[in-house]
């Protein structure tokens, strides 16, 4: 079994890669520019004795994705499990958002997911087995002030997930989304200590999630015995929203 994790060079993506490697799965770590970080994650995965490949591509480019697919096919590493983790956030009042910023967030979060899924799902359909897991956000479910663009993009991820799950269910391919709350990664690295404390006080469990906790949920959804779970948006958020 092979898993492809987009944006797998750091944060949640890196933890997902290590989680799958730890149970003996081959891992493909996609990245855009973080070459050294991707190699560092790869070295950690290799310690489990699995096959690991790092590959760079702009997911918004169908041509680059085609070359990526050809390389994976050559190595016998077409994914049975696709984790669409690559994404970008944006924080500002909507009145300050430029058209270019809107297009960037939508392109990375939605177009990249669409093209990557479209590229790799035929392999899953042909073997009548596959798992597609999209990393969303709690804000795609509830919305967040000053994160309208990001919330909109992740809401689109959730809708994409639900619709595609119905389309692929007869082919033995499940499609689900994981929508984390606040996770202790670089994405909240801009917060100072006072802001971190205030945010954690809003969360019933009183802390941020660790990337490894999100990775464990992704792994569970990818299991063969999770085949009856599809079209779901599952939010590990510490009780922040219910």
How many structural domains are formed by the residues? 1
Q: According to CATH, what is the class?
A: Alpha Beta
Helix content: 40-55%
CATH topology: Rossmann fold
What is the overall silhouette? globular
CATH superfamily: NAD(P)-binding Rossmann-like Domain
* DSSP helical segment count: 8
Structural class: alpha/beta
SSE pattern, N- to C-terminal: EHEHEHEHEHHEHHE
Structural account:
With 242 residues, this protein is an alpha/beta fold. It has one domain: Rossmann fold, CATH 3.40.50.720. 46% of the residues lie in helices and 14% in strands. The chain has helices at residues 11-21, 35-46, 62-74, 99-127, 139-142, 148-168, 193-202, 211-222; strands spanning 2-5, 26-31, 52-56, 81-84, 130-135, 173-178, 233-234. It has a seven-stranded parallel β-sheet with strand order 3-2-1-4-5-6-7, sandwiched between helices. Helix 1 runs parallel beside helix 2 (35-46) and helix 1 (11-21) packs across helix 8 (211-222). It is globular and about 50 Å long. It starts with a strand and ends in an 8-residue tail after the last strand.
Helices and strands, with pairings:
Layout: E1 2-5, H1 11-21, E2 26-31, H2 35-46, E3 52-56, H3 62-74, E4 81-84, H4 99-127, E5 130-135, H5 139-142, H6 148-168, E6 173-178, H7 193-202, H8 211-222, E7 233-234
Parallel strand pairs: 1-2, 1-4, 2-3, 4-5, 5-6, 6-7
